[in-house]
Amino acid sequence: MVSKIEQDHQRFRQIVRGKIRKDLRRFLSRGDIIGREGRRLVSIPIHDIDIPTFRYGDNSGGVGMGEGDEGDVVGKGTEQGGEEEGRHILEVDVTLEELADILAEELQLPRIEPRGAHRITTIRDKYTGIRPEGPASLRHFKRTYREALKRQLMSGSYDPDDPVIVPIKRDLRYRSWNEVKKPQSNAAIIYMMDVSGSMGDEQKEIVRLEAFWIDTWLRRNYEGIESRYIVHDVRAAEVDKKTFFSIREDGGTRISSAFHLCRELVHQHYDPNEWNTYLFHFSDGDNSSEADNRECVKILDLELLKACNMFGYCQVASAYGSGNFINVLREAFPGGAADEFGPRLILSKVNDRGDIHDSLRTFFKQGR
């Protein structure tokens, strides 16, 4: 049976879930949520929800206590109260799995059907406790010593002047273990971002936010995720996650440099028969030349689209970028390089943070 307190807690979680879902578009565009991310939890501020608590009044004044005449207002003071409502802010911890489920409900996203090989797991031994029997190699010295000490203290044979502890057979303790199935990474995300001079701080923040939610959704669908990061201007380089979101560059743009490096990573590490691979490129749509546009189309057509579940191109609006690359891709792949599961190449345009909501729906509505 579910206790009353558990029912109340479940009801409270439902209220919180509904509040997050109602304000999801606003949460998607808030960078501070990423900063609150822990290992498995995200702390989210919720307005106008308060946990019931006991509140004690001020008994220092009023009729019947101290001075006062009949008809006096209880607790009358010299300061006037305000007329505006207060805003109650409660921070709740939500797991990434819950957050992904809320995202899926609101955006009406289907669960992803993995392609390629089955999900890969390995079996390993995990030490979980202590038991009185086992092989000598797993004998736990401290626990054995403690048992022997307890026995001698209880029997009165312990001599503090000659503190010799001699374990006997019933004192021996051994580590115990269980077999644990540990999932290996069976999906990979490769993020590519244009860091040329036309990509400013706001554009990079939009990329950072969208990448966080992409990660959250894909991790809900796969047992393991491996993420790689590529930045480029006229040349491309692989970097770590922190550098990806903080690097400042300048200069021109050659998008094909990122596509070439991405192709190398896929060929070297992510066999399409074993991996579910997702590729995302973020840019303001400015490229160096028509020749490089053709080179990008060639790499996509002959290499990348065949090796991945999905290639998502997200064009972030910038006052300095031409915004033409998304049109190049639309003309080259009018059907999005579709197969029996729908388009592999999916295009999205984000003008500001408010568009992240629709961009995520565009990328994952096919359930690839």
What does it look like?
- The chain is α/β, with parallel strands linked by helices.
- It has three domains: 1-51 and 88-108, no CATH class; 121-181, no CATH class; 185-364, von Willebrand factor, type A domain (Rossmann fold, 3-Layer(aba) Sandwich).
- It has eleven helices and twelve strands.
- The protein has helices at 4-22, 24-28, 32-35, 96-107, 141-155, 201-221, 241-246, 255-269, 290-307, 325-332, 356-364; strands at residues 41-47, 89-95, 121-131, 174-183, 187-194, 226-232, 236-239, 276-283, 310-316, 338-339, 342-343, 345-350.
- The strands form four sheets. A six-stranded mixed β-sheet has the order 7-6-5-8-9-12, sandwiched between helices. Strands 1-2 form a two-stranded antiparallel sheet. It has a two-stranded antiparallel ribbon with strand order 3-4.
- Strand 6 (226-232) and strand 7 (236-239) form a beta hairpin.
- Helix 8 runs parallel beside helix 9.
CATH level 4 superfamily of the largest domain: von Willebrand factor, type A domain
Classification by helices and strands: alpha/beta
Overall pLDDT metric: 80
Give the second-level CATH assignment, the architecture of the largest domain: 3-Layer(aba) Sandwich
Alpha-carbon distance between the two ends: 40 Å
Q: How many separate domains make up the residues?
A: 3
CATH topology of the largest domain: Rossmann fold
Query: How much strand?
Result: 15-25%
Order of helices and strands: HHHEEHEHEEHEEHHEHEHEEEH
CATH class descriptor name of the largest domain: Alpha Beta
The poorly predicted ranges are none
Q: How would you write the strand order of the largest sheet?
A: 7-6-5-8-9-12
Helix percentage: 25-40%
Q: Helical segment tally?
A: 11
Integer-rounded radius of gyration = 30 Å
Largest sheet geometry? 6 strands, mixed
Q: How many beta-strand runs?
A: 12
Shape: extended
